[in-house]
Fold each of these.
Amino acid sequence: MKFIIDDANIESIKEIYEYFSVDGVTTNPTILWKVSKNPFKVLKEIREFIGKDAELHVQVISKRAEDMIDEANHILNELGNNTFIKIPVTKEGVKAIKLLKSKSINITATAVYNSMQGYLAAKAGADYIAPYINRIDNLGFDGIKVAKEIHDILKINGFNCEVLGASFKNSKQVLELAKYGVGAATIGSQVIEGLLKIDAVNCAVETFTNDFENLCGKNKTMKNI
Ligand code: G3P
């Protein structure tokens, strides 16, 4: 499963890249708003840091398909051809996906709340389908179930398209999709930071350190005994 950061804060992105194996960055208008700077300034900084071949996902704002296409072309001119254009799966969005894919543009179908949206976006040519796990849960449905069902639809129908799980709020949600073999997950920095906070592990490491120092002396490691 690809591991993608759902954030536009360059310091958080750099920190997570330093520690984890990361496959790219996704953004949306709300994520950009939280950074409070010119969006292209922020996105260009991210692009420069992750490199021209890494996945950067950027969402259009327009509502009509033709306007989405104009906007997508502008985003690609500014940020490079490996940028994935995020299109919300509305009726106009499906039309835009179909037209953009005919020009071989990378597409992430976003704002996905049900499996039919996933099917229609994949059929139109999307490369990724992004179900909003936690937001679906908050509507009283089962976000993980929707993501798994879309994964199955993609595989059974032979679509060249993967689920990109989004809107995670906890480790369990991420793990459920990793166990199922979905293609990718995009996770906010705060949730990523929480994935490995396990007191029992820190406690075990502390005991190993104490035992070794009792054997060899304070601040000793395998390097200086
Ligand atoms: O990038 C879209 C998705 O991840 C939204 O997440 O946390 O706003 O529900 P959230």
Amino acid sequence: MNNWLNVADDHDFSEHNLPFGVFRSGGESHIGVAIGDHIIDLNIYASDGNLSETSFDASTLGEGTLNAFMDCGRPAHKELRIKLQSDLGNENSSLASGRDKYLVDRIGAEMVMPIEIGDYTDFYSSIEHATNVGKMFRPDNPLLPNWKHIPVGYHGRASSIVMSGTPIRRPKGQLMPPDADAPVFGPSKRMDFELEMAFVTCKGNALGDTISTADAEDHIFGMMVFNDWSARDIQKWEYVPLGPFLGKNFGSTISPWIVTMDALDPFRVTGPKQDPKPLEYLHCEKDHSFDIKLQVSLQPKDSESTIICRSNYKYMYWNLAQQLAHHTVNGCNVRTGDVMASGTISGPQKGSFGSMLEISWSGKEPITLKDGSTRTFIEDNDTIHMNAWCQKDGKRVGFGTCSGEILPSN
Ligand code: CA
């Protein structure tokens, strides 16, 4: 540890992390960086001239979202990171001497949407998840023939992505009961979560241009935890022929802090072997997988939480560089502030499945919670908590929690 706040190396928000978020301060939205139980208020820190020597435009830190700062590019993000680490290691720095002014309490802070999200894309990149879901519908042929050649995805809806802590109302829609002749209208009876990670883009490409796997990480600001809430019964009736729609677009939840690619770099690992070898534009020269431990718990109202899934981002078959290269290979332009979610991250064994659909095997195998109640899908007033963290050689980088409660349908 090398900081005068004495934040331990194994704290979620250690000096090795320094994730970005936006919090409410006196009626305004301020950009901040988390360190231990504090937030460095970058709005005030920058406006006092502490970043006047930097090569990027520090006035971007006075905005109410991260978009303008993200648009400065990866070298700017790294430069600020190095400056803050240096200030945190120096008891005579302006950050240390102005700590009463620059540091705010993280625990009591109200976090708000850190970015203005332009477009949102959801991939389907876990082979375990795709195989599990496929098995329920096509036992003999679970993985479709294109799956190992294409990072499959769809365009989702950005307007309904919300900050952790925002309740989600159980959606109503068309449902086709088993053995019925016609659909009925009503609240979803098969409410589900999907455990995902999402990345945020920080530099776009012009329409008609592409982003290679080698350049992909220059276009990625960082990552957060992502819950892609799903109404399985609405989804099942609507998804043929054009894919996910109202079973998905009523809400998705993000964790408040965006962990930068520089903070994730030490946790890089080799991803699963890809066989058959993907087409040339999907080849990677280096590793783009990360060892991010994931955990989901379900908490009934006024009761304790039960852990229902332990998974890891490293299980993903397609990595984020391949996802971004594939997304743009046809000339599609991405912009700063686009969000791309990984798809449900399931591991190989039971216990590592990232949705209730898989955990209860389509409702056939209920699970028992600590309070003795059972679940096949999410019930009203259940809260889903998702956590993610990296840890290696005693150094920890945490994402914080992505939580949301399901409210009864109105
Ligand atoms: Ca999904």
Amino acid sequence: MMIDLEHVALTYQSPDGEIEALRDISFTVEEGEFVSIVGPSGCGKSTLLSLICGLEPPTGGRVLVDGKPVTAPSGRVGLMPQRDQLFEWRTIWGNVTLGLELEGGPGGAAKAQTQMLLEQYGLGAFAQKRPSQLSGGMRQRCALIRTLATGPRLLLLDEPFSALDYQTRLSVSADIHGIIRREHKTALLVTHDISEAISLSDRIVVLSRRPAVVRSIHDLSALRTLSPMERRDAPAFREFFNTIWKELDINV
Ligand code: ADP
């Protein structure tokens, strides 16, 4: 088991008082699985990722990665943030090796591996270019390669496609999903987009409004053999969509 959350709770202390973000979160993610978390805005999805990353401790329950309690950030876990956060003053190579530099400088093997990832995923010719010279999709690939460069086994993705327009988002999310599968990584994706979650995931965890509890967990193995694009045309897609939509209870 890659992630094991046992009755996880988190209450923030703020100048205005306590904010109970997570009340009681329990679920597991198996090695190699792609799991999405959906929930109303502000319910605590990003908070949950920061606990799994080791950026803050839970105020209740336990967070285990690889069977061990998480106490601090570790190289086993890579985070892909909402914006690609590529630095314009660095080349693409400078950006994808940033994590390695922070870990003490890219060793020969890690450098060769990063170069291989750039080549394999169509960015080899862009190594000396700047981020502004890349398309939105290429920037996302670059951000993913930067995360993969440090060799994490678990990827946490915090709304990584939210800055892209709808059409680009469809193809970029399928592309990034394909890379994660080919690299045999375990992934936990936070998204507010139900369709995106259904098109990419093995399972979907639906959270309630804040303070968040797990409302339901959906197993999408019926769609497993279909690509993200094919899933969107499958009859089961609409059924999952309608069920999750009702569970989210979004008022307009
Ligand atoms: P989501 O990702 O689901 O939109 P977040 O995890 O970002 O939600 O936030 C959950 C709740 O906790 C929100 O009400 C937010 O305002 C609050 N919150 C997040 N971070 C902090 C913090 N560092 N201090 C106090 N409150 C916070």
